[in-house]
Specification:
By secondary structure, the chain is an alpha/beta fold. It is built from twelve helices and 17 strands. The structure holds nicotinamide-adenine-dinucleotide and zinc ion (ZN) (2 copies).
């Protein structure tokens, strides 16, 4: 089969790989019809995730058709259309039973903090991902979900990560009716978080980024206010001024460890790698929320050290909530919102790229070229 493989930082290539096979009776093999590149893949692409091995196939957001199932798979049959959440989870361990599929204790033998994900380095289990023609899906009865007829493949694809992650970001922000919410990052995750904040009763939503084209899209897609942090010398001061000077009820970090906006954080966290990433939006979030406010973090940070103003957060009595999204937990709610016509997640898709050209997709998305917000990948056989 044809599959994207990692060759080293900023280098991806499509090569022939052996077809994946059933390795365990709970596995399924899925023929991929669509996959995405995610902001999380950019951290891999930029060489920032430890133990990212040459030869791995990335891709944790994909939908497809079940090709084959192992002897113990009960819920799926060959021919089923499935959306596959990015988490690989056993469904049975202490954490899975609490709904923490992102922290499954069985699926990732390499770590105790993080669970497993498709195509996300050996720190997330070393599983190959779905930027390929076929993919092996472990614990096939747990994550994969038959796509209801109300969902087209594009919307189903958005339900594998970006939309439920944005939803969970808003949920973790503890929004109460009328609350003001500031979202850092106008990528797919921030856009969905901003949109979902309204579902939860927000009274005001503002999105911060440095790309005008993304902020313009945010105004349309999430009917929110926006701020380009390059336009002001002190974004926190402006955010305070924009509130009642006391700050925002909730702030969401949907940018993560490669954030820009602080030369010092970039130098230490991205260039010299003395810290595990630049935590600028987290700084701004902690400073911009009011005392007693909530900061919800879905932007990805790696272990171990970061420069974060924990003392400010502590003294302000800020509630910090965070995590990799456990997609399955809110999936049915997310689908209900689509069915009710509240949201059409595929609106954020800006590029459709043949699998063979996936290198161009990484480049466009990474460098924020050509108005790129969300690129999706289609293997040759799956293109209409
Ligand atoms: N928790 C999860 O389960 C989960 C799931 C998917 C993605 N993520 C993470 O969410 C983050 C966003 O993903 P994405 O797909 O939207 O990526 P993206 O790269 O498209 O978007 C990130 C956006 O943040 C902006 N940004 C950078 N620095 C900023 C700052 N200081 N203030 C405000 N905005 C800033 C960038 O300009 C960019 O538009 C990534 O870190 C990704 O790894 C987490
Ligand atoms: Zn993702
Ligand atoms: Zn588990």
């Amino acid at each position: 089969m044809r599959a994207m493989t990692y060759r080293g930082p900023y280098r991806v290539r499509v090569v022939d790989k052996p077809l994946p096979a059933i390795e365990h009776p709970r596995d399924a093999i899925v023929r991929v019809t669509r996959a995405c590149i995610c902001g999380s893949d950019l951290h891999l692409y930029h060489g920032l995730v430890p133990d990212t091995r040459v030869g791995q196939t990335f891709g944790h957001e994909f939908v497809g058709i079940v090709e084959e199932v192992g002897a113990q798979v009960r819920e799926l049959r060959p021919g089923d259309r499935v959306l596959v959440p990015f988490n690989i989870a056993c469904g049975e361990c202490y954490f899975c039973r609490k709904g923490l599929h992102a922290n499954c204790h069985n699926a990732n033998p390499n770590a105790t903090a993080l669970g497993a994900a498709f195509g996300y380095s050996h720190t997330a289990g070393g599983y190959d991902g779905g930027q390929a023609e076929y993919v092996r899906v472990p614990y096939a009865d747990v994550g994969p979900t038959k796509i209801p007829s109300s969902l087209d493949d594009d919307n189903a694809l958005m339900c594998t990560d970006a939309y439920p992650t944005g939803y969970q970001a808003a949920e973790m922000a503890g929004i109460r009716r009328g609350d003001s919410v500031v979202v850092f990052g106008a990528g797919p995750i921030g856009l969905f978080a901003a949109r979902c904040a309204w579902f939860m009763g927000a009274g005001r939503v503002l999105v911060v980024d440095e790309y005008d084209y993304r902020l313009e899209f945010a105004r349309r897609f999430a009917q929110c206010e926006t701020l380009n942090f390059r336009d002001v010398s002190d974004p926190v001061w402006l955010l305070k001024k924009e509130s009642d000077w006391l700050g925002w009820d909730a702030a969401i970090d949907a940018a993560g460890c490669e954030a820009r906006g602080s030369a010092m954080q970039r130098l230490l966290g991205v260039r010299l790698k003395l810290l595990s990433g630049a935590a600028t939006p987290l700084h701004w979030a902690i400073d911009a929320v009011r005392k007693g406010g909530v900061v919800s973090i879905v932007g990805v940070y790696g272990p171990t050290l970061n420069a974060i103003p924990i003392g400010t957060a502590m003294n302000k009595g800020v509630t910090l909530r965070m995590g990799q999204a456990s997609v399955k937990r809110n999936l049915s709610r997310c689908i209900e919102h689509i069915e009710a016509g509240h949201i059409d997640p595929k609106e954020i898709i800006t590029h459709r790229i043949p699998l063979e050209d996936i290198g161009d997709g990484y480049h466009l998305f990474s460098s924020k070229l050509d108005g790129c917000i969300k690129p999706i990948i289609q293997p040759d056989g799956a293109r209409a």
